[in-house]
Design goal:
By secondary structure, the chain is α/β, with parallel strands linked by helices. It contains 10 helices and 18 strands. It starts with 9 loop residues before the first strand and ends with a strand.
């Protein structure tokens, strides 16, 4: 292996997140678009790719260095690393999600409270879900059986469908590309093992690295022009950055894109600096509120890829996750991956519909809100908009309530229990508010609108 600085911000494929103190205020146009972003609160993230066909971890099994955790599904397989890669890279010849209907996805998301999409245009495995001119490893190539389908340019099809429903568009793009001959170059490995970095040292082979940089720039320009308007460029693979020796000169291509779209939001994950316009905790929620734009991406199942034996979070868990994220100032990107045939799993559809029903009643306390001190104390979380403060009292599952205590100390004139739509009695004390009401039981939360 080349002696690069190993990126400790990625553990078992999961990225850490940049500290709030390192955030750099973006240009004016981007800052204004970020206020739109902070209003949205709920995104549908979709990982769709070759990995869904075999129900395994997205891409990471290709890296020998990460095999101990990423190939657990193949723990009893006799496949060597080289054999695994040969099997995986040839999945493009059987990729055929014939029941994929982007309009149904968009309808499902729009009806159930999702406000924007984060969609995998290309994961680390390099398989492109749009009609790129830079490689034949794509859904529109003749060796892919899906290439004759009307939706063969999956990215454009799904972006068009979601855009028609008025939803924001986020393009997930992997900076590392483990299929590219310019990243893992044949015969140039410093070790027999593959890993997340390049197979060569770019400082020793600058012309080869230049080819990869040009390849990456061209693909990013394709995605932000031929696939329609894109609101967010969500860049994964934080190991590809200047201080690890893998500088793709991101600023140059972002400058080109922003000449046409000056308010493009870029999330260059874990890298920090001027192109990490919002921070992206992964499979976790920060302990404390953050005063910068951020978004937690959390999978509904055990991981980001479809799995045949998956275990999905229940509605209560998902709604409380959303409350936890929003009260700390963030957005939730809930990942649901499609089945190999292109349909959303029924468990995912049921949760989306449950979210939609809950948001119809309580969405005012979620959308277009900002953080509100004391943020979250014990079982009470807060948000606020321009006119009201909202308090979420997270309830015990088997208990009915006729009174609660809300640790909020500002002067107030009225409180409405949004679960019933009725105003309630309250008494202010030095410590907060004692609220009483008719007995009610709700397994998720009691939600109060405070004026």
């Amino acid at each position: 292996m080349a002696k690069f600085k190993i990126d400790e911000a990625i553990l078992n494929g999961v990225h850490n997140f940049t500290n709030e103190s390192n955030y750099i205020t973006p240009p004016k146009e981007v800052g204004e678009k970020l206020e739109w972003f902070r209003d949205q609160k709920l995104a549908l993230m979709v990982h769709m790719g070759l990995y869904c066909q075999i129900g395994t971890t997205a891409s990471w099994g290709l890296s020998d260095h990460d095999a101990s955790w990423s190939r657990k599904d193949f723990s009893e397989s006799p496949l060597s690393g080289k054999e695994y890669r040969n099997m995986y890279f040839n999945l493009n010849k059987s990729f055929n999600p014939v029941r994929f209907e982007p309009e149904q996805w968009a309808e499902l998301a729009a009806k159930n409270g999702f406000r924007y999409l984060i969609f995998t245009t290309k994961h680390h495995d390099g398989f492109c879900l749009w009609d790129t001119k830079e490689t034949d490893y794509k859904t529109t190539s003749p060796d892919c059986p899906y290439s004759s389908n009307q939706y063969a340019d999956i990215v454009k099809s799904v972006f068009d469908a979601f855009r028609k429903k008025g939803l924001g568009i986020g393009a997930y793009f992997s900076k590392p590309d483990w299929h590219s001959p310019y990243y893992w170059a044949e015969g140039m490995a410093h070790s027999e093992e593959t890993w997340r970095m390049t197979s060569y040292d770019p400082s020793q082979y600058p012309e080869l690295w230049k080819k990869f940089v040009n390849y990456t720039h061209n693909q990013l320009l394709e995605l932000t022009t031929q696939c329609g308007d894109v609101d967010i460029l969500w860049l994964d693979g934080g190991q590809v950055r200047p201080d690890t020796g893998l500088d793709i000169r991101l600023g140059e291509v972002i400058e080109k894109i922003r000449k046409q779209k000056p308010d493009l939001i870029v999330a260059d994950r874990t890298v920090g600096g001027e192109f990490e316009n919002y921070v992206t905790p992964e499979q976790t929620v920060p302990e404390n509120a953050m005063h910068i734009p951020w978004e937690s991406s959390v999978s509904l199942g055990k991981g980001y890829s479809f799995r045949y034996d998956d275990e999905y979070k229940d509605l209560k868990t998902v709604i409380r996750l959303l409350i936890d994220v929003v009260c700390k100032g963030g957005n939730l990107a809930l990942n649901i991956s499609p089945q190999p045939d292109g349909r959303m799993p029924k468990e995912g559809i049921a949760i989306m519909q449950g979210i939609g029903q809950w948001m119809k009643q309580y969405g005012e306390a979620i959308y277009k809100t900002r953080i509100c001190a004391p943020y979250k104390q014990a079982n009470v979380a807060f948000t606020q908009n321009e006119t009201n403060v909202f308090a979420f009292v997270l309830t015990d599952e088997d208990r009915a309530y006729d009174e609660v205590f809300i640790p909020y100390q500002q002067n107030i004139s009225q409180i409405e229990l949004m679960n019933t739509g009725k105003t309630v009695c309250f008494k202010q004390t030095a410590e907060g508010i004692k609220v009483s009401f008719d007995t009610i039981k709700d397994e998720i939360a009691l939600v109060f609108k405070i004026q």
